[in-house]
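hey so u asked for the seq, here:
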Amino acid sequence: MDSIRSIPRVLCLLVAWSASAVFASETAYDALKVAAAKLGRDSQNRVLEVVGSGGRPQPAMWQIAVEDAPGKSGAAGVQQVDVRSGSVVAQRRLALSGTRLNLTAIQIDSDGVFSVANSEAIRAGVSFDRLNYRLNADNQAGIPVWKVELFDGPGHRVGSLKISADSAQVIELSPELALTEEQKRELRWSKPGEKYKSIPDFFHRMGKRAENTGYKLKNWANGYGWTDDRNPPPPSPNP
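ran it, structure tokens below
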């Protein structure tokens, strides 16, 4: 029962989200295919940005910014294509500039991005109930980067991270998600009452138990009582 209570709320949200929301919602790649079918296959070479808000874990709608193909005048604008449930539901002009994304370099879709963000949140003990996604180029080379914001409650941002879309590696964590070296070391070991995580964890627990017993014996011999306190208070004088 204790182990069930200790599960971070972020995991429970996966149960709360319906199966259709978790598995049937379209990913960013799905939305890009819908947009390309509407604007032409060549439009995939002119994508500037992909945005999805309020994902649980995937957003209900993806907004894709696509640069126009140059006309005879050579001028090109930008339009936003809104994709929902497998269809383009709106198109509008945008005042946006940016670097075209190299979509062929993308190795992780938005469902994989959620898995990475969820794992980082669990490690940091951060609960969230929705995510905002943004895929754009982080430099002039067009290398795609996922930027994810985590929210819990109305407007309460609880963390953010950047994930390289061409390697699926986390390249930046906000302070809320970043762990200290001491916290990282502590994550390697289980606590009394928990299952052992590994063979080294078993020996670590045995060593800690022997260490605590040693402190208890030392404190008892010095009149501090049977305690493993490293700095016990002075014993009370006998009345």
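The longest strand covers residues 47-55. Residues 1-24 have pLDDT under 50 and may be disordered.
lmk if thats what u needed
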